[in-house]
Amino acid sequence: MASSSERKGTFKVRALQEIEASVQAKWEAEKVFEVDAGGDQGEGKFFVTFPYPYVNGRLHLGHSFSLSKCEFAVGYQRLLGKKCLFPFGFHATGMPIKACADKLAREMEEYGCPPVFPDDDAGAGDDGSKDSAGDAAEALLKSKAKGKKSKAAAKTVAAKYQWQIMQSLGLSDAEIAKFADAGYWLHYFPPIIREDLKRMGLKADWRRSFVTTHVNPYYDSFVRWQFLRLKERQRIKFGKRYTIFSPKVNQPCMDHDRSAGEGVGPQEYLLVKMKAVEPLPQALKTMQGRNLFLVAATLRPETMYGQTNCWVRPDMDYVAFELKNGDVFVCTYRAALNMSYQGFTTDNGKVKVLLNLKGQDLIGLGLSSPLTCHKIIYTLPMLNIKEDKGTGVVTSVPSDSPDDYATLRDLKNKEPLRQKYGVADNTVLPFDPVPIVEVPGYGSLSAVAVCDELKIQSQNDRDKLQEAKEKIYLKGFYEGVLLVGPYKGKKIQDVKKDIQKGMVDEGKAVVYMEPEKKVIARSGDECVVALCDQWYLDYGDPKWKDMARTALSKMETYSEEVRKNFQATLDWLCEHACSRTYGLGTKLPWDESWLIESLSDSTIYMAYYTVAHYLQGGDLMGGSTCPPYFIRPEDMTPEAWDYIFLNVASKTKLEKKDALDAMKKEFEFWYPMDLRCSGKDLIPNHLSYCIFNHCAMWPENPEKWVLGMRANGHLLLNSEKMSKSTGNFLTLADALDKFSADGMRLALADAGDGIEDANFVETMADAGILRLYTFLEWVKEMLASLSSLRTGPMDSYVDRAFEADMSHGVLTTKEHYDQMMFKEALRTGFFEFQAARDKYRELCVLRGMHRDLVLKFIETQAVILSPICPHICEHVWSMLGKKESIMHTRWPVVAAPDETLLKSSQYLMDSVHDFRLRLKAFRTAGSKCSKKKDLSMHPPGPQMVRATIWVAKTFPPWQLTILTTLKQLFQKHNGLPDNKVVSAELKDKPELKKHMKKVMPFAQAVREKVEKMGIGALNVTLDFNEREVLLENLRYILNTLEVDDIEVKFSDDPTAEEVIREECCPGQPRAVFCSDTFVNVCCINQQQSSGCFEVQVPVLDGDSAAKVLARLGRMGGHVSFDGVTVKLLRYEDPTMGPRKIPTLGCEETGKVVIPSEAIFRIKADKSGVEIELDGTRVDVGSQMSYIVVPQV
User: Fold this and answer.
1) Is the same domain home to 322 and 424?
2) Rounded to a whole number, what is the largest CA-CA distance in the chain?
3) Can you tell me the mean pLDDT for 1075-1086?
4) Residues ≥6 apart with Cβ < 8 Å to 827
5) Going by DSSP bridges, is the β-strand pair 528-538/236-246 parallel, antiparallel, or unpaired?
6) Distance between CA atoms of 198 and 191, rounded to whole angstroms?
7) Is residue 351 included in any domain, yes or no?
8) Distance from first CA to last CA of the chain, Å, rounded?
9) Other CB atoms closer than 10 Å to residue 219's CB: what's the count?
10) CA distances, 669 to each of 23, 84, 358, 541, 914 (Å)
11) Which of 890, 900, 928, 1118 could form a disulfide with 1023 if both were Cys (CB 3.0 to 4.6 A apart)?
């Protein structure tokens, strides 16, 4: 499915894609990424994995983002000389594929094959078909379903029939029918996913790939062995436990089985039984004589002492249903269904409904409720009760609940409201809030106090009521003291559980569970909480938890927030159901009526990767034996797995001992796993289970535990959540087609690094394509013109600065790669690295770039960018004549850059940028003055712009005082104190009185520099000579500013204005521009075949001959007159001389050499110039000649 962003041209994308196809063919032919244990380990090994994706469809861009972290890391670690293994498997365990296949089979059975559906689709499909259709749409994407067709398909995912969804994707009827067999999905999608990943350039060893479930006998054997050992070690137990449950498929629904609600668990409530008091209202007359209870789900049993009434919503649907003991509960049907799976009803999962009711039918009903001080309370209306939470019946405690107080107050104060819902006065007016809990700061009626504080007027002030609850609920729990009952005087948090237990023991309440939030199974139905007999992994075992915490403490998480999320998960994680009866997977070895669920067969499979190539050799299903050992599935007994992974010698003879030794060697070489990358949503389940199970399988070998896990946020597309229904969605295949592999990879790297949600921006991908293509074309241009590039020494300032910039870029980029900060690595290793090249090219515009530095830049750029954009880097590498793949090269070794040179280079560029801004402002002001005819800024006649650059040797005295004081404060406080302390220290300094308005702004600016640079920002001098840097690059400054003359002076020069002396400081030169009148003088070179041209050179009054020659060099297109002698000549007869035809070889005849010390003066009538020498003026006219003589 493609997003809506369209482009006009694709030439550059196609060019990159052609390169990528060629490079990938080369890698495959050379088997670059196939790697085995053994041999010289060199700089070490690096084993990285990505959670194998579920194979019910093509990968989308979100998958690509997470796995790109593995991909970039492998590329970098290879450059460090490590042996790197990145295997990739395919997950099919669970119920989604089976559910979709069964749905297709039912449609064919009911409607034929191909099916003929009824015109009226109101009854089409089964429950929740809309949701399962959405999953199927993702599952059935094909390579031909792209672009606009994909967007159309995205908008039809609400179709009720699975068959229709497949048809909308362009699949033939004959092909669709095959998907009714769940096994066909396993053969169809993994090869397609693998090809997409190859097109991405994934550095995977595909020999080690496999598909899970029993269809793969080798992996099936591995998982069965794992569970046998876990059971032996008492990590797996059996018993009744509460779990999220799918009524439709009649089995537990784990995270991977859900289309919504991943990570949601059961929430425990106390179900308070409020017995109906006869006489009953008309709607309940048939319940006369029975034990009838309205049941309210509460998280705060301690507040039951303060009940004044019970709430129902008048327009909500309720049911009265029968329990297995004959009692009758009244609540919503959703809650009743949950209860039916928790042992409340006679038949599990069945609700015996006796009455269907509206909330209005219950208003006025008298109730006998536990713990309250009132003998009878009444059912009253509340309008904001939610249907998807609790039972629809709510106890009212207006002393401690802002919602309850606001609603009760409305009913008491508003008679029309009572009349509207038929509320009798005696059921509400006598009841006032009952003080039961003392909350510090809010007293014994905390809800009343907070409502008064926030000026809450009614139950409709939703935002203020939410704020009120946030203010008092947690404070009440942690600090509140009970004022009534047997636990009077004790803190709520200490007695809450005791109160709950007492109510349950006395039969006044029961424990009730429901999902924390709505959970939708991939089968389409809303899940409940069920009390089931189950095999479960006992993650709550204290010793096992301690091991997991130890493993986490030694593990690299690359983010403190990720570590905290892991710690929180390890704290709350208890039991996890590891079995089910429906779907695909491996059967429990000791009870084959159960299947191992999808999160439980995927915890240590990374170990299987290390040996998979010996077992399957790239055959995803493990359907046949493979060389060199031709191991059969039956050879892989539990004892064989013990020998490979646990180093346990078998008491019986093992088959194919040489093969097992080879596999054992592979495992010992590659383990432990160095890195696992995933989305943050897998921290509470898969990633934490991985930690636990590694600890369980290798309890005595902590060196086998995982070394690192990196979690990232979700991926937005163009700043919005990816959604098939809106068309804002891209599969991996779509992205490869639209942006090329390297274009997509660059945008993925730029999308973000942290645990916060990242953002793939299509315009950024397009810009990346342009950058890559431009780089490629520049490389071609440079390699084609190497002979024209400068050679010789590389000792000029710009050469040395460029080399320092490259070294700095290599080192900082390495730091970012080390920290897996790929967005930053891209910034420093490509964007800023290219900017350094551009700066060098700009600085060398007059002399040209050095050939060796250009070649060094191209080679270095290819290497440091190769982890992110490997295809174009491989192509550039081959263009440089390198025979071996760039995948085998090493990270560049560079010396530490000259920091002073880096600072001075940055100083130069920052200064020139500031000069440009000042020049623009000067020209803008001059233009405005010209319109106003202000001759002070814009004198008449042609103008030349001159600049004076003022450089400070030290800071002005007032700034020096501030810097010195701040440095003292920094050293005293080990950092800068807050501005109040700084202000107090500076306000009485006598040298600052005159500048008091500027003191704190300057101090704040310095503070910001200190935050970036540290205490070095407080130095009062620079590490380099500013004036020398500017003078050495004066030609560049003149050329880039396009001014005619520049002088560099110190700010303490007597001619400097006061503002310059007061404001100019080290590191911040000031450029002052002015306009001067000039005349153009024609300078002609009359030498034969000289390559020099006639140039109109502007001459200012007071110019020296040397200045005019320098200006001639710039304007004539000469890099400089270095290495030659240039003579400037005037005509003896300034009127007739220029008219005479020159004689070849006698260019000086009739002319006089102008001495370099001569000063030019503009004639009064502006018709030409004169020269002044020793007080004498000589007419030059409007034309001169110049001769270029090579030095011998």
Assistant:
1) yes
2) 136
3) 88
4) 816
5) antiparallel
6) 10
7) yes
8) 72
9) 27
10) 30, 11, 68, 31, 57
11) 900
Q: Residue 366: which H helix or E strand, with range?
A: strand 366-368
* Pair (523, 642) in one structural domain: no
Number of domains forming the structure of the chain:
5
Query: Same domain for 323 and 333?
Result: yes
| Residues β-bridged to residue 321 | 329, 353
User: Which pLDDT belongs to residue 938?
Assistant: 47
SS3 state at 1076: strand
> Can you give the three-state secondary structure of 461-522, one letter per residue?
CHHHHHHHHHHHHHHHHHHCEECCCCCCCCEHHHHHHHHHHHHHHCCCEEEEEEECCCCEEC
Residue 454 is encoded by which pair of tokens? 């926030």
User: Span 1050-1068, mean pLDDT?
Assistant: 88
C-beta contacts of 918-927 below 8 A and 24+ residues apart: 918/1070, 918/1071, 918/1072, 918/1073, 919/945, 919/947, 919/1041, 919/1043, 919/1071, 919/1073, 922/1073, 926/1075
Q: What whole-number distance in Å separates Cα of residue 1112 and Cα of residue 1116?
A: 6
pLDDT digits 0-9 by tens, 955-965: 888 888 988 89
pLDDT for 143: 34
Last residue of a domain, one of 671, 700, 732: 671
Residue 275 tokens read as 């017995």
CATH number, position 643: 3.40.50.620
829 and 843 in a single domain? The answer is yes
Closest CA relative to residue 272, chosen from 357, 350, 370? 370
Which of the residue ranges 614-623, 717-726, 885-894, 1114-1123 would you say has the lowest mean pLDDT? 1114-1123
Q: What is the token pair recorded at 868? A: 């992110």
Same domain for 252 and 315, yes or no, is: no
The token pair that represents 256 in the structure block = 């991977």
Question: What's the one-letter identity of residue 650?
Answer: S
- Per DSSP, what are the bridge partners of residue 1084? 1185
Q: Hunting for tokens 């998958």 — which residue is that?
A: 63
Mean pLDDT of the chain: 89
How far, in Å, CA of 379 to CA of 417, rounded? 15
Q: Which residue matches tokens 């009127």?
A: 1135
The enclosing domain of 456 has a CATH number of 3.90.740.10
The model's confidence at residue 536, banded by pLDDT at 50, 70 and 90, is very high
Mean pLDDT within 885-898 = 95
Q: Give me the DSSP letters along 399-451.
A: TT-HHHHHHHHHHHH-HHHHHHTT--GGGTTT------EEBTTTBT-HHHHHH
Secondary structure class of 1001 (helix, strand, coil): helix
Q: How confident is the model at residue 123 (pLDDT cuts 50, 70, 90)?
A: very low
Summarize the chain as % helix, strand, coil (round to 5).
Answer: 45, 20, 35
| Angle at which helices 1034-1041 and 1105-1115 cross, to 10° | 60
Are 246 and 334 within one domain?
A: no
Give start and end residues of each alpha helix (H) in 555-654.
560-572, 605-615, 638-641
pLDDT in tens, 1008-1043: 888 887 888 888 888 899 999 999 898 889 888 988
CA–CA dist 585, 601 (Å, integer): 8
Confidence of residue 6 (pLDDT cuts 50, 70, 90): low
pLDDT per residue as tens digits for the range 1101-1132 = 888 998 888 888 777 665 456 667 889 999 99
Q: How many CB atoms lie within 10 A of CB 485?
A: 15
- 857, 872, 897 - which closes a domain: 897
Output the DSSP codes for 630-643: ---GGG--HHHHII
- Whether residue 654 is found in the same domain as residue 527: no
Q: Quote the pLDDT of residue 410.
A: 94
Do 867 and 797 share a structural domain?
yes
Asked if the structure places residue 1011 within a domain, the reply is no
Query: DSSP letter string over 874-918?
Result: HHHHHHTT--S-GGG--PPP-PPP-HHHHHHHHHHHHHHHHHHHH
Residue 389, in any domain of the structure: yes
**Is residue 187 included in any domain, yes or no?**
yes
Q: What average pLDDT does range 139-163 have in this prediction? A: 43
Residue 1106 confidence (pLDDT): 87
Whether cis (ω within 30° of 0) applies to the bond prior to 279 is yes
